[in-house]
Amino acid sequence: MAKVRGAIVVDVERCKGCEICIGSCPTDVLRMSVDVNGKGYHYAYMENPEACTGCVNCATVCPDTVITVYRIKVPS
Amino acid sequence: MAELRIEDIIKPENIVFKKTKLFTDKPLSYCPGCGHGVVHRLVLEVIEEMGIEAETIGIAPVGCSVLAYEFMNIDMVQAPHGRAPALATGIKRIHTEKFVFTYQGDGDLAAIGTAETIHACNRGENIAIIFINNGIYGMTGGQMAPTTLPGMQSSTSPYGRDVETMGHPMKITELVSNLPGTRFVARHAVHTPALVRKTKKAIRKAFENQKENKGLSFVEVVSNCNSGWKMSPVESNKWLAENMLPFYELGTLKDE
Amino acid sequence: MGELRLMKGNEAIAEGFIRAGVDAYYGYPITPQSEVMEYLMLEQPEKKTGMVVLQAESELAAINMVYGAACTGKKAVTSSSSPGISLMQEGFSYIAGSEVPAVVLNVARGGPGLGDIQPAQSDYFQSVKGGGHGDYRQIVLAPSSVQEMYDFVSIAFDLAYKYRIMVLILSDGAIGQMMEKVVLGDQIPRMTNQEIKDKYDSWAITGRTPGREHNVITSLDLDQENLERHNHHLQAKYREIVEKEVVFEEYAIEDAEYLMIAYGTSARICHKAVQLGREKGIKVGLFRPITLWPFPDKRIKELSNQVKGILSVEMSAGQMIEDIMLAVESKIKVEHFGRYGGVVHSPEEVVIALETKIIGG
User: Does residue C210 form part of some domain?
Assistant: First the structure.
């Protein structure tokens, strides 16, 4: 059975740090950065990237559409 | 097998979600966590997926989404407060082949524009009305809306909405569902991934219905206003689920 | 020679809407102009030209339907009478701010408030000074016959598109209700969607044509410097209109020592009053502004060098007189006469007023 791996890219400068994506992630991938972006917002990033399945939940709830999602199938 | 690197995943051919090209380059002006951004995206995704951007005319209201035309890369007009359904009527009647939608908040649609809303619905104008209900006037600074819940605090109901003196919250979606001119009336929300997907389906239906000349489609989206509610975005979504949804029940009210 | 018919003013202008190739009429019933929509509903222009006719739920809705249609480059029109026109002022201001072409008919009646249903000219201030909010103008045409009710429709739309501005046809209950013969012109075809795209694609919201940026019609600009620039642009447009579009008519002016200035119904009465005055040996002439804005102040100023006094005759408490006084710069005597609240003065009353207020005064 093929395993699914995903990854996200956050448009850091457009992230407003609302944190809604964090709770939407079923595999607990995301955290908020300690750093801030140009607007002074903490931004989302993948703390546990290996757990990402590319399920698109985070991008689905993101109010500013700052998340691009990638997914591949990896033969197990 | 060698460990898979992130760079191997992040390749154009592996994209499963990206921003719709119907957004302009302007960053959304909404507060962090505001549901408006999600609903904007869903409307644009539907238009893009249907391939109707050259056939679509949008109408922005007065309120937080007054600047929707700054973010939606489609032809749009900004309506006087509450009059969006009248503009939509005026446009659709002589552009029957076009897709026409209004995007309105609760103050715009259910207070100052009640007459325009109800009569456009009653005439069965072949348009889509997208209605954002966050229980408050966001743009003007958190005043009481027709949809503010009993007991809910706002800047003009600082001790909570007293229904004895301030009236009851209005369920205008239920009201318009009783009118013969409406064909599809639904209430959804966008604070969880599953609910966002349902909302998108409803918006898609509202646009598809126009193609079939079905009449008026009305999609309410119960949303948050964390600034007006004075909560963090995450808290506001929790509050929404616990307080707004028991009163504004989600689901399809009418589908004919 | 076109087709000759006996028609009410309200019917003639309704026929004018159809024949001018108007795309949409959105209206709400109010006396004394309800015949406009009644005529249109009976004629069913959607079967002849495809013109849409819709009864709105209010004047507020009607003007906003017009606003929406006008934003798409279509010829849209509404009609009402004074109280309904007051309700429409919000739309007028938005139409001015966002610069879309539209035509509105006011068959004015007595006021203030609900007033009565008799003819009046007490909406002059509201019409020419801007009844809504903000610094804006609209072109105001004042017909004084049933023929002009018909003729002014095409003129109004030409001006509306030339300047992307609202044109108000300011009539009154007398002209709306009276029957006269009218010569009707040929049907002007409605513009096709393609013609509108070809002509107005730079601003009209017709759907984002592939290859161009989205068109947006709005009167909002939260940057005050930008909004000031936009206002400068509007004012420049208004100055051009003042320069180029003034229209008036003169009667018995050549040897006149006294002048009556009147428009619309009042001008008809003054036409007779001039004849009565001349029978009495008074050398009096009539000046009739046809555009109330832009106001023919230059010509009035010229005439103030010729005549000894001016009687402004209006079915109001005296509104246009303020523009006349500005034009003559206090050089000669200017007085107002008029019955109002729906009362129409007689030619005899006007002559007496000329004698007592101007000649003898």
Answer: no
Tens-digit pLDDT profile for residues C267-311:
999 999 999 999 999 999 999 999 999 999 999 999 999 999 999
Domain ranges of chain B: 30-255
Domain edge (last residue) among C142, C168, C184: C184
Domain boundaries, position A15: 2-75
Whether the ω angle into residue B146 lies within 30 degrees of 0, i.e. cis, is: no
The secondary element (H helix, E strand) that includes residue C305 is none
Contact, C106 vs C13, CB < 8 A?
Answer: no
Q: Find tokens 């026109």 and name the residue.
A: C85
Chain B: give the shortest CA distance to residue C322, in Å: 32
Q: Which two tokens stand for residue A50?
A: 């290996």
Dihedral in degrees, nearest 10, Cα atoms C257, C261, C266, C272: 20
Residue B26: CB atoms within 10 A of its CB come to 10
Interface test with B, best of A31, A50, A60 (most B CBs within 10 A): A60
At the top level of CATH, which class does the domain B30-255 belong to?
alpha beta
Is residue C43 situated within a structural domain? yes
- Taking the C-alpha atoms of residue C97 and residue C218, their distance in angstroms, rounded to an integer, is 8
Same domain, C166 and C300: no
Q: Give Cα separations from C54 to C38, C166, C193, C219 (angstroms).
A: 11, 20, 20, 26
Residue of C nearest to B69 (CA): C216
Q: Mind telling me how many Å the CA of C91 is from chain B's nearest CA? A: 7
**HEC sequence for C185-210:** CCCCCCCCHHHHHHHHCCCCCCCCCC
- Final residue belonging to a domain, choices C168, C184, C200: C184
Closest by CA position to C291, among listed C174, C184, C170, C178? C170
In this model, does residue A1 exceed pLDDT 70? no
From B192's Cα to the closest Cα of chain A, the distance in A is 6
Query: Which residues constitute the domain of residue C343?
Result: 249-359
A67 in contact with B at a CB cutoff of 8 Å? yes
Q: How does DSSP classify residue B23?
A: B
- The phi and psi torsions of C293 (rounded to 5 degrees) equal -135, 125
Say if residue C33 is in the same domain as residue C138: yes
- B118, closest residue in chain C (CA to CA): C57
Helix (H) or strand (E) holding A39: none
In whole angstroms, what is the distance from residue B138 CA to residue B63 CA? 7
Chain-chain contact of A20 with B33 (C-beta, under 8 angstroms)? yes
Q: What share of chain A is helix, strand, coil (3-state, %, to 5)?
A: 20, 40, 40
Chain B contacts in chain A segment 7-26 (CB below 8 A): 7, 9, 14, 16-20, 22-24
The C-alpha torsion from C141 through C147 and C149 to C151, rounded to 10°, is: -70
pLDDT tens digits, one per residue of B1-48: 567 899 999 999 999 999 999 999 999 999 999 999 999 999 999 999
What's the mean per-residue pLDDT of chain A? 96
Single-letter code of the amino acid located at A35: D
Q: Profile chain B (256 residues) by mean pLDDT over runs of 10 residues.
A: 83 98 97 98 98 97 96 98 98 98 98 98 98 96 97 97 97 98 98 98 98 97 96 98 98 97
Query: What's the Cα-to-Cα distance from B234 to each of A24, A52, B40, rounded to whole Å?
Result: 10, 21, 20
The number of domains in chain C is 2
Sign of the C-alpha dihedral, residues C181, C186, C192, C194? Answer: negative
For residue C102, the cross-strand partners are C166
Q: What is the pLDDT of residue C43?
A: 98
ipTM given for this complex: 0.97
| Chain B nearest-CA residue for A56 | B17
List chains adjacent to chain C, taking adjacency as at least 3 C-beta pairs closer than 8 Å. Answer: B
pLDDT band of residue C112 (cuts 50, 70, 90) is very high
**Is C213 among the domain residues?**
no
